[in-house]
Specification:
Low-confidence stretches: none
Strand content: 15-25%
Pfam families: GatB_N, GatB_Yqey
Catalytic activity: L-glutamyl-tRNA(Gln) + L-glutamine + ATP + H2O = L-glutaminyl-tRNA(Gln) + L-glutamate + ADP + phosphate + H(+)
Largest sheet: 4 strands, antiparallel
Protein name: GATB amidotransferase
Keywords: ATP-binding, Ligase, Nucleotide-binding, Protein biosynthesis, Transferase
Number of strands: 15
Number of helices: 13
Structural class: alpha+beta
Shape: elongated
InterPro entries: Asn/Gln-tRNA_amidoTrfase_suB/E (IPR017959), Asn/Gln-tRNA_Trfase_suB/E_cat (IPR006075), Asn/Gln_amidotransferase (IPR018027), Asn/Gln_tRNA_amidoTrase-B-like (IPR003789), GatB (IPR004413), Gln_synth/guanido_kin_cat_dom (IPR014746)
Length: 412
């Protein structure tokens, strides 16, 4: 058993307000499929490592950042298990290939209760979970690289009635696709039922190109996984400060309280600190944390510029972020570093350039040609004139050069 996997599971459980079981058990889940050659998967079906938690997340109402609501989804359990292999479907050759590189690798599964009602809520909850995992170091949680995957269980029902038959949309690998897959599946089930059809208990996949879910395999004939206690693994025993034996080798045990004391600030706490320290709006703190590396970038710019944080946030969220989204980049890969943006904002704050000129300079910086903001300002002659006499001379020269127009403008 991998010690680091157990520590990561405990840390994640604590961050999600779970009760950590000091004694958890391992089971064998038998099934015969090409992605696990052993014919069974080691999991925690009876007593998982953590139970009964909660995850709070926030989302906007009607796409208005100023109207945010906070919701909570219950965490049923967190369990340790083995990952399976990856099936690759080659439609051209009509073949199914299997990549077994990750088969048997430690996997942590977070099981949520059915407390969300649309794709947007699920996406917001998973994004918050992703931030928590990255903050803890439990996982890099990059969905595109398979470090975090989502299986979405969807069912529809009338208010007050039992849940309907559910379908499972497997292995969703992006938060955007998660929202689309759930919303599509909700509408598909509603349409099916309203047209007199029935919902099959089946596994489906989301086709991102077509924007719809497609059947994979049905679950109508309930599979008997023949769960049994894993004979090769004893119970997993954890300790806290009170139960830790006096003469125990600390390298041989995992202390829940020791892990609890070393939990880093979670995203919710970081947001509160950003609002308190910099006087920014709460909704801005969400954007800063939700975009990878943006909060660190913002704080770096603030430290290097004389501009007030409230104005800095405007430039980052309204201008720089639009460039990043336009080119599908994170701030870590931006050609405009925090140093360059701070230099630009200092020129603006000192009234060396206008805000219009600053936007022109930002556009030039984005080209990544290695020029500084000051060099661009001088090359393109974007400086604001500070000398009143010089300004008067320029105005007089313009007037002198346009005699006919001046005469036409003079009354009488």
């Amino acid at each position: 058993l991998n010690r680091r996997c157990v520590e990561a599971a405990v840390m994640t459980g604590l961050a999600l307000n779970c009760s950590i079981n000091k004694k958890s058990l391992f089971d064998r889940k038998h099934y015969f499929y090409a992605d696990l050659p052993a014919g069974y998967q080691i999991t925690q079906q009876r007593v998982p490592i953590a139970v009964n938690g909660s995850l709070s997340y926030s989302l906007c109402i009607g796409n208005k950042m100023s109207q945010m609501v906070t919701k909570t989804v219950r965490i049923k359990q967190i369990q340790l298990e083995q990952d399976s292999g990856k099936s690759l479907h080659d439609d051209t050759r009509s073949q199914i290939l299997v990549d077994l590189n990750r088969a048997g690798v430690g996997l942590m599964e977070v099981v949520m209760e059915p407390d969300m009602c649309c794709g947007e809520e699920a996406a917001a909850a998973v994004r918050e979970l992703q931030l928590i995992l990255q903050t803890l170091g439990s996982s890099q949680a990059v969905m595109a690289e398979g470090q975090l995957r989502v299986d979405a269980n969807v069912s529809v029902h009338h208010p007050g009635e039992p849940y309907g038959v559910r379908t499972e949309v497997k292995n969703i690998n992006s938060i955007r696709f998660l929202a689309k897959a759930i919303d599509y599946e909700i509408q598909r089930q509603i349409d099916e039922l309203e047209n007199g059809g029935t919902i099959l208990n089946e596994t489906r996949a989301f086709d991102s190109k077509l924007g719809c879910t497609v059947p994979m395999r049905d679950k109508e004939g309930k599979q008997d996984y023949r769960f049994m206690p894993e004979p090769n693994l004893p119970p997993l025993i954890l300790y806290d400060a009170k139960s830790l034996p006096a003469n125990m080798n600390h390298q041989q045990v995992i202390n829940i309280d020791w892990i609890r004391e070393r939990l880093p600030d979670l995203p919710s706490v970081k947001r509160e600190k950003l609002v308190e320290q910099y006087g920014i709006l709460p909704e801005h703190s969400f954007t800063l944390l939700n975009e990878d590396g943006l909060a660190d970038f913002f704080e770096s710019v603030v430290k290097q510029t004389q501009m007030k944080p409230k104005k800095v946030i405007g430039w980052i969220l309204n201008d720089l972020l639009s460039y990043l989204k336009q080119h599908s980049l994170t701030v870590k890969k931006s050609p405009v570093s925090s140093f360059l943006l701070a230099d630009l904002l200092n020129l603006l704050e000192k009234k060396k350039i206008s805000s219009t000129a600053a936007k022109q300079v930002l556009a030039e910086l984005w080209k990544g040609e290695g020029k500084t903001p000051l060099e661009i300002v001088k090359e393109q002659k974007l400086e604001l004139l500070q000398d009143q006499k010089e300004l008067e001379q320029i105005c007089q020269a313009v007037i002198d050069g346009q005699e006919n127009e001046v005469i036409m403008m003079v009354p009488g």
